[in-house]
Amino acid sequence: MRYLLACVVCFLCLNLTNAIAQKKEKKTTKIKKAKSTMFEGTIQEKPWTKSTQSYCAQGSEYFVLVKKDGEEIVLKNESGQELSAYNGKEVKIQGRIETKTIKPSNNMNEQRPVQMPMNPTRGGKEVEVDFTCTILVITQIN
Q1: Which backbone phi and psi does 46 adopt, to 5 degrees?
Q2: 106, 141, 117: which is closest to 21 by C-alpha?
Q3: CA–CA separation, 55 and 58 (whole Å)
Q4: Closest listed residue to residue 45, CA positions, set 19, 27, 71, 66
Q5: Where in the chain are the domains?
Q6: How many CA atoms lie within 13 A of 88 on its CB side?
Q7: Are strands 131-141 and 72-77 parallel, antiparallel or unpaired?
């Protein structure tokens, strides 16, 4: 009985410590801005997956612009227009390409993409490195 009680207390302490660590930790995201340009393609809604593209979007469902050459760019909407109204439609977007940098989390329970880059130089252990991706910040949709 004592062993069971000790296991329950240990489990609760670990979960409490994890919850406190999650609240204290903040991801630092740096973004490099560029000039505004016109982009053309089809807006497509994507479901959350454990991919680098989904991680870049940093949300559950997200939208991408599929250009005519098949390239997909994650969208960040600053236009005030609802992207779901344009899902599956060809559009012209006024916006800017930004490089987004996401710092790795120290929380081992946090979701990460399967293809997350690793750096094997710290004490022989693999540790995550900063993750960078490209996003298109929408200022206007036509």
Answers
A1: -120, 145
A2: 106
A3: 5
A4: 66
A5: 26-141
A6: 1
A7: parallel
Q: Which of 24-28, 90-94, 129-133 ranks highest by mean pLDDT?
A: 90-94
Check if the beta carbon of residue 76 is closer than 8 Å to that of residue 135.
Answer: yes
Question: What's the predicted TM-score (pTM) here?
Answer: 0.65
116-138 per-position pLDDT tens digit: 555 555 565 666 678 889 999 99
Q: What's the chain's length in residues?
A: 142
Q: Collapsing DSSP states into helix, strand and coil, what is residue 84?
A: helix
Bridge partners of residue 46, in order along the sequence: 62
In angstroms, the first-to-last Cα distance of the chain is 68
H/E segment holding residue 86: none
> Which residue from 106, 99, 98 is spatially nearest to 26, judged by alpha carbons?
106
SS3 60: coil
Distances (CA, A) of 122 to 25, 118, 119, 128, 129: 21, 10, 7, 10, 11
Q: What is the pLDDT of residues 45-65, one digit of tens each?
A: 999 888 889 888 987 899 999
